[in-house]
Structure formats: structure tokens, C-alpha cells
Design brief:
This protein is an all-alpha fold. It is built from 17 helices and no strands.
């Protein structure tokens, strides 16, 4: 609203009661939210803002019909909205104590939301339920997607063998059905799994199977730069970082990750001043982007750099901050 007005309590209560009792108002809200996603990602993000605002209103009763409408927006498995900061909270809030029955696609989205909120145990169970349910109805593409998402949680737990087994099954199904989007997703997760185990060669093997026309995403660039770093191919690593620097100007999180990588490279090469500079930039990016996990890793690297510079007190401060 361009301006804010303070209403007398009696007027405020009168307006609230009108909205609470107005089926037309709820219907209009539902139509608004449903209409927006058909436009573009920008409008879909606006839809999330609308839903977030409405869900925060204690006087608005979100009935089951309205929740079904909202789920039509929220649980699109391929949706770029999963990266929206409000998405996981809105999904879990919408489904808490909800009588809406979830199909396999909705279960997968619900699991992703729980995983983003660090509710890993519950997310793991949701993904396992989706795998079982999709197998029962013969929807093997959805089953493969559920296995990929489950593998992410297993990776978080350090259960690498189980994660690998689920990814292998998913990759086989994706190739069998010639589902390019699923193939790329499985290969990217396979590369991430290898990177987390510091296996740069295996990560490169996965990434090189991705079709050339799909080698443009920020995640691909991040993973292949990490793989080159792990294999010690710093020349190729620096070339990828140079290409990516153009794309990351308006993406703080990606810019933070690339600065973190470059900082680690300088740390490995003994260029401590350059490492300090790059890692400090990365810390600032992660602070603004509100990514606590990436921030903790980066602070640990910065602490190690400060130790190498003989700045023990500063190093202790950064490492303590990473711990908390």
C-alpha cells in the first residue's frame, strides 16, 4: 500500500469480520493466486509473496478448498520457485494439519521444502513414501525424481553408498525414458555427491555426460569448477571462474561460492593475502544471501587462512563464528 492508515478498533474489527465471512473474497484470492503462475517466473514469485502475506494474517481462515488452489502453485516439481526464500515455509505451513491428499508430485515438493528447512528425517520419510507410492501406480519417472531428492538427504547424512545406489537407479530410468531434464538432474546430483567426497575425477565423469546445450546453468559451472579444483587443474578452474564472473554479477549466492572457491585455490597455492581477500568477499555475500551452511564453510576456510598468516586471534574468532 502507498500509505498506511490507523483505524479505530471498531472499524478494524468490522472490516476483518467482513473478510472472514466473505466467500467472494476467498474465491477472488484463489483465482488471483491460480492465475499468476501461468505468466512467468517473476509473477510466480509475486504469487508466493501474496500467499505469504495472506498466510500471515491471523484473522484469515485458509480453508481446504483454498489450500488445494495454493498447492497447484506450490508443488510444481520442476518449479524454479523452490529457491524462493518463502517457498519452504509456505509449503509446510499450508500442509500442516491439512486434509488435502498429496499426490506423488506434491509429496516430492513437500519433501524438498522439509529438507530446505533442515527437517531431514521427516523429508527422508516423505521421499521414501513417494518412491513406494509412485512405484505402485507405475509412475517410474516420478519415482526416479523421488530417488534423486532422497539421495540429497542421504548425502547430507553422509550415507554415500545409499545415495549412490538411488542415483544409479534414477539415472537408468531417466535414460530409459529419454527424459533429458531428469538425466541432467541425476548427473548433477552425481557430480555433487562426488565433490562432497573430494572425488574430482568422478565428478568430471558425471558432468561430461551432460549434453553441451545443458552446460550453461550456474550449478553446472559451480560443480565443474569445484571438480577442476579438486583435480588440481587450476588453469581450467580459473577459466570457468572467468566465464562465470559475468553471470554472477546479480547473484550474491553464486558470487559468494565462486569467491570461496578462488579463495581456497589461493590458500592451496600459499597465496594467503589473495585468499584472505577472496574469502572475505565470499563471507559478505553469504551474510547478505542468508546461507548459514555456506557461510560456516567459508568462515572455516577464512580461519585457516588467518592461521597461515599468523593472525591467531582473528582466526579463533572466525572459527568460533563458523561453529555457532
Amino acid at each position: 500500500w502507498p500509505q498506511t492508515y490507523r483505524l479505530f478498533t471498531i472499524a478494524h474489527n468490522y472490516i476483518v469480520n467482513l473478510y472472514q465471512q466473505s466467500s467472494e473474497c476467498l474465491s477472488l484470492i484463489s483465482e488471483l493466486v491460480l492465475a499468476i503462475p501461468n505468466q512467468s517466473v517473476r509473477y510466480s514469485q509475486f504469487a508466493l509473496d501474496v500467499m505469504s502475506h495472506l498466510s500471515s494474517l491471523t484473522w484469515l481462515n485458509v480453508d481446504q478448498t483454498l489450500k488445494r488452489h495454493w498447492l497447484a502453485v506450490l508443488v510444481q516439481t520442476e518449479s524454479s520457485l523452490h529457491n524462493h526464500p518463502r517457498w519452504p515455509v509456505l509449503v509446510t505451513n499450508t500442509l500442516t494439519n491439512s486434509l488435502v491428499e498429496l499426490d506423488c508430485e506434491a509429496q516430492i515438493s513437500y519433501g524438498i521444502a522439509l529438507r530446505q528447512l533442515a527437517q531431514w528425517k521427516k523429508a527422508k520419510q516423505i521421499f521414501r513414501d513417494a518412491i513406494k507410492r509412485s512405484g505402485q501406480v507405475g509412475d517410474f519417472r516420478q519415482q526416479a525424481r523421488a530417488r534423486i531428492e532422497l539421495s540429497v538427504v542421504l548425502r547430507y547424512y553422509g550415507q554415500y553408498e545409499d545415495a549412490t545406489a538411488n542415483l544409479q537407479q534414477s539415472t537408468q530410468i531417466a535414460f530409459r525414458y529419454e527424459d533429458n531434464a531428469l538425466v541432467v538432474l541425476a548427473l548433477l546430483e552425481g557430480a555433487q555427491l562426488a565433490v562432497d567426497q573430494a572425488n574430482g575425477k568422478q565428478a568430471l565423469d558425471s558432468l561430461q555426460k551432460i549434453p553441451k546445450n545443458q552446460q550453461w546453468s550456474m550449478r553446472y559451472l559451480l560443480l565443474i569448477s569445484e571438480a577442476y579444483f579438486l583435480t588440481g587443474n587450476f588453469a581450467a578452474f580459473q577459466e570457468i571462474v572467468r566465464q562465470a564472473s559475468i553471470k554472477t554479477q546479480n547473484d550474491r549466492l553464486a558470487r559468494g561460492r565462486f569467491n570461496d572457491l578462488v579463495g581456497r585455490m589461493h590458500l592451496a597455492l600459499g597465496n594467503y593475502n589473495k585468499a584472505h581477500h577472496r574469502l572475505s568477499v565470499a563471507v559478505s555475500c553469504f551474510d547478505i544471501a542468508e546461507d548459514p551452511f555456506a557461510l560456516a564453510r567459508c568462515l572455516s576456510n577464512l580461519g585457516a587462512t588467518l592461521l597461515c598468516q599468523g593472525k591467531h586471534k582473528e582466526a579463533e574468532n572466525q572459527l568460533m563464528r563458523a561453529h555457532h
